[in-house]
């Protein structure tokens, strides 16, 4: 019976995007190191039944977490005073950075956080969850880096946190952290650096001779840094680290409740019960790879990124947005008769996944590529298929949404539409959900979604998510 269950699970997994081989250029991070998955799975199984709720009951998890935090602190310019927490992922790390900043300033009645418009959406989520006002500052329209002068000007008496990215997800560029952190420090405000993607690879790039902009605790004024272990530490999903420059800064992140008849609840994260599996898997992977292993993997990712950037520069019809500092590349159309959403469909037909990103502010619609060590050696195939996909998309022509449809979509108020009306819109966009299969070609769907305002697009996709989970 157990074999049948596992066979059914394998059959279901066969319909997913591939998580290995470097063909899925978003969501997953593949080291291509033989045996690493087996090591992580074995470590996970050893600790999966252990509960991280109480480190005094399960001291093994306390040791694992302190080891991981110490490794992250050493990598990111920490001192003997640096402390940290292992969380379930980058979003939870960012949420905790915000709640710690908010709760450290109880005298502020309407707390706000200052962010660049390119900051990860996790901070929008934090503002929504915790009742914090989000002050969004435009970035440089060419480099897509945060503007430190405008960030400084946005800080006021209600500001409890300023956030910089290293790098930003959409364009892969590192914000000017020294200037932003200095402005925060002058105002007596915390400065968080979201290095969820770059934190475990940029330091190794620096060791390889790359000119990496300063972003970590070596920068005066930086009070916290987040770095994900499931990204370029190549650990299984479910592990991230939030570092604080001192225990005093971390204290407000903790939650305690003794005012009820049960045990005194004491939590370092938003979770109470936590499986020890992801923590043990991350500990095992980082111990196994070690500093030299990560330097080698960073070198492979760097070389692959360079080759892909050079190759894209030679493809007619596309260009890279900004000048990426890390392993993230945003590719947009450089001619009017090319639809990047169609390029994504063509790449999917060639067994690649590149992530569409909608236009926002000065950033046009583009395709996001996350390059990992697994892409080393496969750059020529990727570039050849990308060039073929661009050529096919030009031949097919851009997807056109009728003017009257655009006008009708623009007139819709997402807050007044009924569930039935949303269902009709979803069906019109080809997002019926339920047992139906998504369209093979997503360019027409993305063209309709692109015509919607961000708020309407959010509501449509929330309704779609609700249909999927029904």
UniProtKB/TrEMBL annotation:
<dbReference type="GO" id="GO:0030170">
    <property type="term" value="F:pyridoxal phosphate binding"/>
</dbReference>
<feature type="modified residue" description="N6-(pyridoxal phosphate)lysine">
    <location>
        <position position="231"/>
    </location>
</feature>
<dbReference type="InterPro" id="IPR015424">
    <property type="entry name" value="PyrdxlP-dep_Trfase"/>
</dbReference>
<keyword id="KW-0032">Aminotransferase</keyword>
<keyword id="KW-0663">Pyridoxal phosphate</keyword>
<dbReference type="GO" id="GO:0004058">
    <property type="term" value="F:aromatic-L-amino-acid decarboxylase activity"/>
</dbReference>
<dbReference type="GO" id="GO:0008483">
    <property type="term" value="F:transaminase activity"/>
</dbReference>
<dbReference type="GO" id="GO:0019752">
    <property type="term" value="P:carboxylic acid metabolic process"/>
</dbReference>
<keyword id="KW-0456">Lyase</keyword>
<dbReference type="Pfam" id="PF00282">
    <property type="entry name" value="Pyridoxal_deC"/>
</dbReference>
<dbReference type="InterPro" id="IPR050477">
    <property type="entry name" value="GrpII_AminoAcid_Decarb"/>
</dbReference>
<dbReference type="InterPro" id="IPR002129">
    <property type="entry name" value="PyrdxlP-dep_de-COase"/>
</dbReference>
<comment type="similarity">
    <text>Belongs to the group II decarboxylase family. Sphingosine-1-phosphate lyase subfamily.</text>
</comment>
<dbReference type="InterPro" id="IPR015421">
    <property type="entry name" value="PyrdxlP-dep_Trfase_major"/>
</dbReference>
<protein>
    <submittedName>
        <fullName>Aspartate aminotransferase family protein</fullName>
    </submittedName>
</protein>
<dbReference type="InterPro" id="IPR015422">
    <property type="entry name" value="PyrdxlP-dep_Trfase_small"/>
</dbReference>
<keyword id="KW-0808">Transferase</keyword>
């Amino acid at each position: 019976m157990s074999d049948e269950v596992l066979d059914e699970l394998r059959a279901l997994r066969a319909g997913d995007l591939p998580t290995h081989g470097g063909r899925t250029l978003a969501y997953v991070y593949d080291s291509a190191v033989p045996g690493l998955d087996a090591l992580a799975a074995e470590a996970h199984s050893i600790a999966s039944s252990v509960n991280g709720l109480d480190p005094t009951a399960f001291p093994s998890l306390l040791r694992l977490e302190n080891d991981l935090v110490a490794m992250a602190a050493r990598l990111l310019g920490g001192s003997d005073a640096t402390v940290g927490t292992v969380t379930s992922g980058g979003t939870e790390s960012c949420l905790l950075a915000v709640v710690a900043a908010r709760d450290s300033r109880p005298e502020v009645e309407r707390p706000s956080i200052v962010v660049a418009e390119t900051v990860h959406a996790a901070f929008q989520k934090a503002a929504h969850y915790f009742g914090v006002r989000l002050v969004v500052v435009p970035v440089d329209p060419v480099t897509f880096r945060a503007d430190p002068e405008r960030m400084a000007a946005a800080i006021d008496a209600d500001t409890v946190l300023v956030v910089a990215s290293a790098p930003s997800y959409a364009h892969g560029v590192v914000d000017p952290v020294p200037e932003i952190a200095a402005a925060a420090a002058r105002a007596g405000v915390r400065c968080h650096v979201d290095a969820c993607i770059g934190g475990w690879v940029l330091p190794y790039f620096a060791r390889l001779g790359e000119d990496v902009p300063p972003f970590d605790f070596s920068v005066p004024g930086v009070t916290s840094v987040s770095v994900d272990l499931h990204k370029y530490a190549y650990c299984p999903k479910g592990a991230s680290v939030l570092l604080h420059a001192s225990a005093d800064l971390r204290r407000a992140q903790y939650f305690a409740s003794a005012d009820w008849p049960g045990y005194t609840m004491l939590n370092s994260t938003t979770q109470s019960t936590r499986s020890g599996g992801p923590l043990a898997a991350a500990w095992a992977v980082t111990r196994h790879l070690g500093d030299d292993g990560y330097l080698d993997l960073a070198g492979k990712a760097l070389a692959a990124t360079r080759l892909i950037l050079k190759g894209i520069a030679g493809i007619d019809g596309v260009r890279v947005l900004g000048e990426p500092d890390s392993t993230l590349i945003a590719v947009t159309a450089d001619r009017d008769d090319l639809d990047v959403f169609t390029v994504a469909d063509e790449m999917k037909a060639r067994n690649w996944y590149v992530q569409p990103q909608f236009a926002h502010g000065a950033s046009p619609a583009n395709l996001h590529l996350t390059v990992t060590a697994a892409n080393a050696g496969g750059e020529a195939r990727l570039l050849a298929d990308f060039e073929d996909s661009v050529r096919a998309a030009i031949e097919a022509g851009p997807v056109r949404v009728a003017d009257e449809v655009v006008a009708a979509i623009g007139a819709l108020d997402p807050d007044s539409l009924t569930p039935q009306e949303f269902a009709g819109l979803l069906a019109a966009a080809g997002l019926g959900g339920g047992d139906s299969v998504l369209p093979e070609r997503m360019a027409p769907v993305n063209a309709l979604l692109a015509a919607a305002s961000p708020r309407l697009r959010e509501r449509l996709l929330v309704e779609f998510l609700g249909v999927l989970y029904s």
